[in-house]
Amino acid sequence: METISENTCFGGTQGVYSHSAKSTNCDMTFGLFLPDEAKYGPVPVLWYLSGLTCTHENAMTKAGAQGWAAEQGIALIFPDTSPRGDNVADDEAYDLGKGAGFYVNATEAPWADHYRMWDYITEDLPNLVFENFALDPERQAITGHSMGGHGALTIAMHFPDRFASVSAFSPICNPTDSDWGRKQLGAYLGSDEAKWTPHDASLLVREKGFDGPMLIDTGTDDQFGDLLKTEALAHAAAARRQQITLRMQPGYDHSYFFVSSFMEEHVSFHADALYSV
Amino acid sequence: METISENTCFGGTQGVYSHSAKSTNCDMTFGLFLPDEAKYGPVPVLWYLSGLTCTHENAMTKAGAQGWAAEQGIALIFPDTSPRGDNVADDEAYDLGKGAGFYVNATEAPWADHYRMWDYITEDLPNLVFENFALDPERQAITGHSMGGHGALTIAMHFPDRFASVSAFSPICNPTDSDWGRKQLGAYLGSDEAKWTPHDASLLVREKGFDGPMLIDTGTDDQFGDLLKTEALAHAAAARRQQITLRMQPGYDHSYFFVSSFMEEHVSFHADALYSV
Residue-wise pLDDT tens for chain B (277 aa)? Predict the structure, then answer.
């Protein structure tokens, strides 16, 4: 693991690190905010998964999360959204290939060699950060934005014992029934749609649910609202009697101006769950 | 209008009054909490519509609302849920007839003579209370529980200029598709289902929406969850991009123990809207 940078931030440290990842078979970069409390012992962790076109950097610089995390004594991890490098397959479209890993393990050419973001987020990166930093693996929570909200919700429901709570900002909710999803799941996983369903938050809520608190915020003026299919998740959660707070926030769009507006409440929401573990 | 009782309560007055109502063609009883501020001028009003089997009294004694309303300087009105009296038609079932007016104007025998709760709540009672008490008609909000949540949501969407905000505790959300609804709408309005749709909150959200904040709380352990059809409202609101906070509250049931647990947040929610009018 290589340290790219470390900056003092809200009394803690905002670091950027790179490492060679087995899952994605390439070097990966991530951001990690450690609150001051980490000097004295392992702290709880909030994973933040980013959306289409993002690297590890966008949320780290634009979401305004570190101040609230410092207040709560919680670490933040900002992974990248896809494998990187000259020998990694890509596509001209913004929503496929680099910056668009969709948090799945690709099985199809030309993606299968590197696009294994599911394993990266759920195995490689946890192994690395819990070995190298003062983080408490027994107290983890997860959130994300857009494609990252999709990742947070689907990963949380597959690892219910790992995450105390899950939230999402304007998540892609029903990718098996959206142009934000069908294209990518088809490319990465192939045409057999049965392989897509484990990566659809609305279907997962209906089938498995999540045994902990769930918070979803989406703007009423989200320019990608038709692609998110929030209504599918809303219906599934209410029908299952899933513990949830779902908010359609008036006037907000899909941007980080929206994410940052509600970051304090999301960090507080996760802190409540993390400190009652 | 006759004063049945007045008790000092949280520095204000909890009154119970009766009056002869033109709409329901019988004497009606209602509760009214006036905060101390009403001594000095008209105060904002929060309507609370009760559920099946209730009179004006249940919420007045069990919802724990007066303390929070006093803190916010807001009046509370607790209407009855049906016409009353020996010559008013009734049914042996708890969910039809007295205590089960469903906030509609009945057109069918034997109900049409008295069961005009829509007009009572939207015309008669407002005329009476704004004439007789220090209440500000320009600052009204509405909430309710179960059948009363259905009433609050449907009335708010039909009178969007009247209500700054709407909320509901475990509301009946989709009565045209539920045994809590089809039976009563059929009895009161007849078999032409086109006449039912103006009284279905999920259909109204889809068609009209509400131009203000909406807050819904329902328990994940609500014993009547299958009758409420919260999922229909959740889907409709998200699909329309209706401003909403919808919460499935873990472990709570349909009782006033649930209602009272979240009353503070509902009163605060309405106060935010009422004081920004």
Answer: 999 999 999 999 999 999 999 999 999 999 999 999 999 999 999 999 999 999 999 999 999 999 999 999 999 999 999 999 999 999 999 999 999 999 999 999 999 999 999 999 999 999 999 999 999 999 999 999 999 999 999 999 999 999 999 999 999 999 999 999 999 999 999 999 999 999 999 999 999 999 999 999 999 999 999 999 999 999 999 999 999 999 999 999 999 999 999 999 999 999 999 999 7
Whether residues A234 and B232 touch (CB distance < 8 A) is answered with no
Which helix H or strand E contains A260, and what residues bound it?
helix A256-274
Task: Using a CB–CB cutoff of 8 Å, tell me whether A166 touches chain B.
Answer: no
CA distance A255 to A277: 32
Active-site residue identified among B50, B146, B165, B170: B146
Question: What letter would DSSP give residue B211?
Answer: S
Q: Do A248 and B232 touch (CB under 8 A)?
A: no
A14 and A6 Cβ atoms separated by less than 8 Å: yes
Chain B segment 234-253 residues within 8 A of A by beta carbon are: 234-239, 241-250
Residue of A170, A222, A266, A270 marked active site: A222
Of B125, B48, B46, the closest CA to residue B83 belongs to B125
pTM (predicted TM-score): 0.91
Nearest to A234 among B218, B225, B234 (CB): B234
Q: Kind of pairing, strands A135-144 and A163-169? A: parallel
ω into residue B110 within 30 of 0, thus cis?
yes
Q: Is B220 on the interface with A (CB under 8 A)?
A: yes
Distance CA B189, CA B275 (A): 37
